Amino acid sequence: MRDLSGVFKAYDIRGIVGEQLDAEIVRDIGAAFARRVGEKGSVVIGHDMRASSPELAGAFADGVRQEGVNVIMIGLASTDMLYYASGSLDLPGAMFTASHNPAKYNGIKLCQAGAKPIGQDTGLVDIQREVEAGTPPLSDRTAGTLETRDLLSGYVAYLHKLVDLSGSRPLKVVVDAGNGMGGHTVPAVFEGLPIEVVPMYFELDGTFPNHEANPLDPKNLVDLQAKVREVGADAGVAFDGDADRCFVVDERGEPVSPSAITALVAVRELAKDPGGTIIHNLITSHAVPEIVAEHGGKPVRTRVGHSFIKAEMATSGAIFGGEHSAHYYFRDFWNADTGMLAAMHVLAALGEQDGTLSALTAGYSRYAASGEVNSTVEDQAGRMAAVKEAFASRDGVRTDEIDGLTVELPDGGWFNLRPSNTEPLLRLNVEAADDSAVAALRDEVLAIVRA
Predict the structure, then answer these.
(1) What is the reported pTM?
(2) Model confidence over 41-80: pLDDT tens digits?
(3) Of 247, 311, 350, 33, nearest to 25 (Cα)?
(4) Is residue 1 domain-resident?
(5) Is residue 358 annotated as part of the catalytic site, yes or no?
(6) Strand, helix or coil at 368?
(7) 25 and 136 within one domain
């Protein structure tokens, strides 16, 4: 019996090609997926630019078809383009990508019809068990058909319906695609708009020759920041490998926090749908719920992770959701995350007025933050308990354990301490009134964590 516990993650499937994932395993995953979602009659499949992606996507398609389910291959795609395909066609889908992971990795993001996520609690465990057990194919089925479609133009047209950039003042924007799928989608999305795109690393190359396609790591923004300053751009945008996340830098080359982007987009969405619900995870800045409430919206706090955000989006009817990791979710995009749509909102907001991006976003950035600080800790539960004990007895302190430990202090400062799901790490995020207050609170917590 196979053991695939190393590749089936909480939200997707991911592993080293040739060691943990190969065509045979992926074909069986495709068959198990088809048995689960086959009532729709077809499955849509897309893939990124990694060298292994076409073969693995083809193997998955073979597994789907052997169960009598038809396949629509859309070829090269960003992950949000696959969500567009799943949503617009109302079909289950599979996206082959390992996002920002190094070249030796690949993976699969699965969704039900309408881009509804499939994770551990929504079918991924069942698929894993079937593949591990070697469940035989349904031998009485006629093989499904194989169709190829190009949905890029449909994806572009749909985004343009949601955010109209045609009336923007002319903008110069540097875009770092990191040799990932942004290099495929950005030229199509911005063609014909008053946006001069200065391209960086648009060549599709799954070996990532210039830098990792992970803009969450500051070292991968350095080239973008330098280019923005060099060409005098109005803004810079960086996408991760599968282009479902976007990161923004202003005209000075300074990063704009994902919390500020969340607040900015939330205000724009609330202008279209007054009183709407906005989802934010518990690590986003406290400025987000404050600004949402000030604009008549209803802020709802949730755990970290796209499965929790999407579930809350569906149950609450939220119009928008944002995470500190630069995932942005839109009701009008089937509750799925799309970095491209978030980037278009930022550029539309910038292009509607004459000021700079730094001036525009200053009003959405109210507090100082530490960013994520990781500590290697074997006894995660013990160290978290020690931190809770140290703070909970103080006057005016509030704590909760919705996701890790969150501690809110009476002066407005707060922190969240969460264990990693995959490594012996504790992840600390701190926010306070200014940098000195952040440093003091951070150091106090770390002294306990690392004792």
Answers:
(1) 0.95
(2) 999 999 999 999 999 999 999 999 999 999 999 999 999 9
(3) 33
(4) no
(5) no
(6) strand
(7) yes
